[in-house]
Design goal:
Structural class: alpha/beta
Shape: globular
CATH superfamily of the largest domain: Enolase-like C-terminal domain
Largest sheet: 6 strands, parallel
Helix content: 25-40%
Bound molecules: magnesium ion
Length: about 375
């Protein structure tokens, strides 16, 4: 099989709960969609977040470069193609959009691999003992990985009243864990946390994400206050690259410090691990080199015995985490759901991997046409 070319386009998908965080405000989420085509009629798909239309244009320009690099290659030689793409983007820099594009191509190649083998991607990835490994005496039985998820699709920087109403609805829908955003002006975060806690009771796991919005001193102070009130997880409390501040917070706060979604490639994770700078790692597939990059991280996390999940992309993450020995909760986000004919579902807080070949996702073309590009 040979790669014959790419098709890519950009879309802006309206979302139910407008995004309001320490770094971003938006009522739509910008995506770039990619199809990697082959001479045998199999196409692999991937998507990436572009953040705005300029980001989308730049990612598509990088995809143009990579298309020239990979056309004619055997799509099954994923490692070889990954290395070629990495080399071809060295001078553009790997800490940015060229890695978004590289990661998209890699994800699409894994989709092709699954489709060519007639297997869901989790089967291609699963080592012995992983969630997605067939168990019991009948090894041909289709084991469907079912992963507990936490609700991330809401609880933005809204008023305490609004946050409480959303949290109550999420608990009612069966979520045992949910993540609120933090970074409101002084005192308002704690009011929002208390409103959520009152709405959901003591049994629900309430997590928090600052999106890098605090200084180290603020994080130490607010983190301690929220930990005392029962917050279980504090994500990206400070600048994402600041391993020293993360290490201080991890050592001093009585909660899990989570980070990783804004680290590029594998190396910074090694640095963070050496510094004991987090409790839980949440790599982002479009920043770590797609599935191939993530597999290195999975092995690194497992060798170091640290908790890890994946940032967003539930359609891909469900396959990946099913190959991990002890994955942390999957981040549930429905932003991309409408893009697919058979969207991934989250039922009572559980996400099951589709058994269809590849990632099991095909574009919902009528929907994509309806929102334009
Ligand atoms: Mg986050």
């Amino acid at each position: 099989m040979r790669i014959t070319g790419f098709r890519h386009r950009s879309v802006a998908v309206p979302v139910k709960y407008p995004v309001v965080s320490s770094v971003r405000q938006s009522a739509k989420v910008d995506f770039v969609l990619l199809d990697v085509m082959t001479d045998e009629g199999i196409a692999g798909i991937a998507y990436a977040q572009a953040f705005n239309r300029h980001g989308a244009q730049a990612i598509r320009a990088c995809l143009g470069l990579l298309e020239e690099v990979v056309v004619g290659e055997d799509p099954g030689k994923i490692e070889r193609i990954w290395q070629k793409m990495w080399k071809s983007t060295k001078l553009l820099g790997h800490q940015g959009l060229s890695t978004f594009a590289l990661s998209m191509v890699d994800i699409a190649l894994w989709d092709i691999a699954g489709k060519a083998a007639g297997q869901p991607v989790f089967r291609l990835l699963a080592p012995k003992g992983a969630v997605g490994t067939p168990s019991g005496s009948d090894s041909s039985a289709p084991a469907v990985p079912a992963l507990p998820a936490y609700m991330s699709d809401g609880l933005w920087l809204v008023t305490p009243q609004e946050a409480a109403a959303q949290a109550a609805a999420f608990a009612e829908a069966g979520f045992a864990a949910m993540k609120m955003r933090l970074g409101r002006p002084s005192g308002e975060d704690i009011a929002a946390y208390r409103a959520i806690r009152r709405a959901v009771g003591d049994e629900v796991d309430v997590m928090g994400d600052v999106n890098q919005g605090w200084s180290p001193a603020q994080a130490l102070d607010a983190g301690a206050q929220l930990a005392a009130e029962g917050l279980s997880w504090l994500e990206e409390p400070v600048d994402a690259e600041d391993d020293e501040a993360h290490a201080v917070l991890t050592a001093h706060l009585q909660l899990a410090v989570a980070t990783g979604e804004n680290l590029y490639g594998i190396r910074p994770f090694r640095r963070f691990l050496q510094a004991h700078a987090a409790t839980v790692y949440t790599p982002d597939l479009q920043r770590v080199g797609g599935v191939t990059g993530w597999l290195q991280l999975r092995d690194l996390f497992e060798a170091n015995n640290v908790r890890h999940s994946v940032h967003l992309f539930p359609e891909f993450a469900v396959h990946l985490l099913a190959s991990a020995k002890q994955p942390d909760k999957l981040e549930w986000m429905s932003w991309a759901s409408a893009l697919f004919q058979e969207p991934l579902e989250c039922e009572r807080g559980i996400v099951s991997a589709p058994l269809r070949p590849g990632f099991g996702m095909e574009w919902n073309e009528p929907f994509i046409d309806s929102i334009g590009s």
